Each structure stands twice: as structure tokens, then as C-alpha cells.
Amino acid sequence: MSREFFKNLERLAENAQDLIYRYELLPQPHFSYVSPAATTITGYTPQEHYDNPNLGFEIVHPEDRHILQEVMGKRHFFEPVVLRWIKKDGTILWTEQRNVPVYDDNGQLIAIEGIARDITLRKQYEEEILRLNADLEQRVKERTAQLEELNKELESFAYSVSHDLRAPLTNIAGFARLLQEELAGKIEKNIESYITAINDSVKRMQKLIEDLLSFSRMTRTELHHTQVDFTKMIQAIIHEVTIVQKSTANFEVGNLPVMTGDEAMLRIAFTNLISNAVKFSSKVQQPQIEIGSYENNGKTVIYVKDNGVGFDPKLSDKLFNVFQRLHAEKDFTGTGIGLAMVRRIISRH
Fold it and tell me: Each residue of 223-272: pLDDT tens digit?
């Protein structure tokens, strides 16, 4: 190679920010070249390296010297070696070294050429990331503990609501029944209708409590994911809903997927959707309910569509809120919790 080529190489090494060196092993270990960056990185001049063949080892932090000894002993060249160095002024920096062996014509190792880079700033960033991750993990643990405590309180509250509200309702229903039995045939029709109204109100309140407790459970219950055959599940729901609601609706079921989800919860969600479709199409002459699926932006959408009374699209944002009813109780009964439960289940998936 030309002299100009080597001059260019030397010029590159002289101007490099990384420390470039050649360490001769024969006949006696010594540095034959150390770039000027040594002064900036270590505080020691190239001449100080030439004068002290052991300086390359002495500047390594005592706790890291075994790493360098292992690399050299096992000749793990080419692999990056991360070490702490102690600068001339006593400060510590992190370096990453890459070494290349030099062999003579007989295959004997005669020198090591290498490059060392100051990675102190990178290590500081890495340590900060580790600290932030540890802090985040601790916060997650604390937040999880808080949520678990809140869940326990919610369970306790749900039990209290269940017990404290059900007991009076049971008493009211019992007294109403006793009145009806004691006064059978002795009271006017309008008074008897009042007792019937009491019983109906008790039943609605009991149903509301049951739905509230179910809605609460949807938040706390752990999901158990399995493969769900939607065709099989929907057909079973249609069969049950048709019997319970005495429906005459015509069901049209299209292609439905097999997907991963909590089948028990998904069954509750689609039972609510299909029951709603049956209820709100019950007053048309020929109820039609369509259930199918389609792909949208890489996601599968499953829909339940009916030809019932529908609702004002302007109110669609309220449709899935708790206690939100878009139709009068006298027209369609319900507690206003079913669709809220559907949204809660789907959002958890």
C-alpha cells in the first residue's frame, strides 16, 4: 500500500474522538501506538502509555480487572468489553473496548490493536432508564395493591347492598302477600290493584339489584380466555332467548368467527344484545333479527341487527350508560343496565 494511504490512516487516528491503540506482546509488552484521544479520555498522554506498558491495565477499575484478564486469557477478541476506567484525576468513566488480534506468519499472536470509546453518558442513560423502570414497577405494584383493596371494598359494599336492600324488599313482598290473602274477596278492585302494584314494584327493584350486582361483578371478575366458537354460542343463546321470551322472531345467522375470549362473559354480553333485539322488535308484525360479522381495518366486527323500534342516533352516546333508557317503561320493561354490562364486557376484551 502507498505511503499516502498510511498517512491518511494516521490522520484519521490522530483526529478520532475514540482512543486507538496497538499493544505489542513481543519481545516485551509495550504500547507502540496510542492516539491523542488518550489524553482527553484518560487524562494520561500517549507518552505516558509508552513509558508504562502496564498503564492500560492499571487504569482499569480494580473491580473490573478480572473481566479484562478473562478476555485476554481466553482470547475472546472481537467481542465488545465494557469496563470502568479511573482517569488521572481520579474520576471514573465507562468505556467500551473492541480488540483485534494480530498474528505473524507462523500464527503466533504478536500484538493487539483496539479502539476504546467513552460510553459514560450512555451508561448514565441506561442507569436512569433502569431506575425509572424500577420506579414504574413499584408504582404499578402500589396501584395494583390499591385496586385490590378497592375491589375488596366493592365486594363488601355489594354484599351490603345485596343484603340490606333485599331484606326490606322481601318483607314488603311478604306483607303484601299476607294482605292479599287476608283480604281476598273483601276489598275493592282498586285496592287490590294497589297491592299488585306493590308486588310488581318489589320485583322490579329485586331485578335492579340483581343487575347492579352483575354489573359490579363484570368489573372484578378475572377473565379466562379460551377459543370461542361464536356460531355455536349464538345458536345456543337464540334457543334460550326464544323460549324465555316466547319470541316469534325470525333469526338469520351469518358467518361467525372462532376467536379468543372469556366465553362466560361473552355469553352474557350477547344474551343481552339478542334479548334486547327480541324485546324491541316484539311489537312489529314480522320481527327480523340478523347476526353476522365482517372485517374492518384488520379487526372482526360482530353485529346484532333488528327491525324493531330503533332509537334516535343523536342519543347513541347515551345508549350504553348505566340506567339509561331511551324508551318508556310502559312500552318496554328493563332496568337500563344490560347494554352498560355489554360495553363493560367488550371493553375488557
Answer: 889 999 999 999 999 988 888 888 888 999 999 999 999 898 898 889 88
CA dist 178 → 40, 101, 175, 195, 334 (Å): 99, 101, 5, 10, 27
End-of-domain residue from the set 220, 240, 273? 220
276 and 263 fall within a common domain? yes
Domain carrying residue 91: 3-118
Domain end among 94, 118, 142: 118
Report d(CA 223, CA 303) in Å as an integer.
Answer: 22
pTM above 0.85, yes or no: no
Is residue 331 pLDDT above 90, yes or no?
no
- Please give the distance of CA 72 from its chain centroid, rounded to a whole number: 45
Query: Taking Cα atoms as reference points, which of 321, 290, 285 lies closest to residue 304?
Result: 290
Tens of pLDDT along 136-150? 999 999 988 887 777
Q: How many domains does the chain have?
A: 3
According to DSSP, residue 113 is labeled: E
For residue 273, which of 236, 306, 239 has the smallest C-alpha distance? 306
For residues 247 and 344, membership in a common domain is answered with yes
Q: Which residue has the higher pLDDT, 139 or 319?
A: 139
Q: Which domain CATH number covers 252?
A: 3.30.565.10
The torsion angles phi and psi of 131, rounded to 5 degrees, stand at: -65, -45
Q: Are strands 250-253 and 288-296 parallel, antiparallel or unpaired?
A: parallel
Number of Cβ within a 10 Å radius of residue 19 = 26
